[in-house]
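<purpose> Linking amino acid order to shape
<body> The protein record starts here
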Amino acid sequence: MRARQDRGIRPTRLAPLAIAVALVGLVAVVSVSMLLGAANLGWTRVAQEVWAQLTGGRSPLSATEAAIVWDVRLPRIVLAGLVGAALAMAGAAFQGVFRNPLADPFLLGAAAGAGMAATIVVVAAPQVTGWVIGPLPLAAFAGAIGGVGLTWLLGRSAGGGTAVLLLAGVAVASFLTAIQTFVQQLNTDTIKQVYSWMLGGLNTTGWREILVTVPYIALAGVVLCLCGRLLDVLAVGDDEAASLGVRPGRVRVVVLLAASLATAAAVSVSGLIGFVGIVVPHVVRLLAGASYRVVIPLSLAGGAVFLIVADHIARTAFAPAELPIGVITAFTGAPFFLLVLRMNRQEVR
């Protein structure tokens, strides 16, 4: 019994230094991304604009330039932070539930469901306007939730268990992707738009998307942070967890629901941005330890930092042209994925 406990993850507390470093890093990347953008406003003039807004002084920017800073640049930075935080903490939660270092937020069919629903909307309602929230984000959110729900129902009908749930996720993702491909082939004129959405992007012109997604991501974040200690207990095995009064099945349901909600909210406004849920949790483990009481909250901050930086590169590297943000995360994440696979080859056999 003691030997198995020694191999498990011993819960630790989140150190104040780690919180401070995460907050400083987040403030730094937000500041840089706000001062520098595709529109060459001059970073000193933007800094003076921010200071003028804080102190009531006179701004050097015109009304149009100020609108670029506050109504275009800042909302996009905040949205990138929210999406990155959601995907990173969901990835950490999935890795804890499945005890698999290669698990990611799209494991149970969220990506396939969102992609299928988004494709159907692009084909069926390409010119719909005037909605508070566009039909594409709504469909992507519903599709992501529906994909996970279908996986859960299929897994439960086959007997439950994490291994069965993983196989159900593969089956559901394949089925939904097949439907998406069929719809695309019938409507080839929409392929470019569909693939543009699937490669990920944060095209926002205000605060509407942020106000819609914040409640879901905040709720999921609170639940997952509170479940960090329980995931630590699950890491030593279901029998030991049960002997300590933890109900493994119930914990997994709650964590998967919260992580899937965060993933669906992120996908609805950003498309399919890969690798965030794998890269960030592993970097946090290397730097701050393996306890989920540490990994989940720091992944939340780290995911925000990572995606803000990736989005900044995407919108400035070839300005005025813009790269899909999924391309940037893939350039970073694919080599890291191979490194993680090599480091954990004994665990994933």
Remarks:
- DSSP finds 15 helices and no strands in the chain.
